[in-house]
Amino acid sequence: MEGTQTEGLDDLPPSAKLVFKVLEYNGPLTQKGIVQESMLSARTVRYALERLEEIGVVDEDVYFADARQNLYKLTEPAQEFTGDECDASCTAD
């Protein structure tokens, strides 16, 4: 299952990879926040979010500050792609 998601992320268009990185660095954001951070058009961000949701690396939640908007965040399995899995063996040098 992990291989399928990794391949799915590798096969995404550059805009979707950028949106993934924006969410990785900034944490949960609204679509408007992703547009501001990535400097992509709203339409491109919508398409990228759809693609990321299809492969299961982004979740959509209610944004309580403004219920008209949604809050997007990386899913738990998506954390595998961020490179945070480095443990004590990485600092053994």
TrEMBL record:
Pfam families in the cross-refs: HTH_24 (PF13412)
Domain of life from the UniProt record: Archaea
SUPFAM superfamilies registered for this protein in UniProt: Winged helix' DNA-binding domain (SSF46785)
Annotated protein name in UniProt: Winged helix-turn-helix transcriptional regulator
Native species: Halorubrum laminariae
